[in-house]
Write a structure and sequence with these properties.
This protein has 3 helices and 2 strands, in the order H-E-E-H-H. It has 98 residues and is mostly helical. The chain has one domain. It has a two-stranded antiparallel ribbon with strand order 1-2. Helix 1 packs across helix 2. The radius of gyration is 14 Å and the shape is globular.
């Protein structure tokens, strides 16, 4: 499904890529219920997501594959977004190269 105002699907990785490009230095603050406050930026989140995406690709993760994160209950919200973003980047990268 395409977005109503753009020529591509409205996916999480597109939103994060846009935020990193136009607001890369802007601070992102997250906190889990029991965890500390974590501060980062959109640029740093996008960079971490790319690293995880490339690692997933090196391990043979393909679009549609499911990935289990051991200890996910200890991840901060920012880290969860990074893992989701990485999976989306991995799928997008594979579809562009095929």
């Amino acid at each position: 499904m395409l977005g109503l105002m753009q020529d591509w699907p409205l996916l999480v990785h597109k939103i994060l890529d846009h935020a990193a490009l136009y607001h890369g230095a802007r601070e992102v603050v997250s906190r889990s219920v029991e965890g500390p406050v974590v501060r980062t930026s959109y640029g740093a989140m996008a960079g971490r997501a790319r690293k995880v995406a490339h690692a997933l690709e090196r391990h043979g993760i393909a679009p549609g594959d499911r990935v289990v994160v051991d200890g996910a209950e200890k991840l901060t919200d920012g880290m969860k977004v990074t893992v989701r973003q990485a999976a989306a980047n991995s799928a997008a990268t594979r579809s562009q190269t095929e």
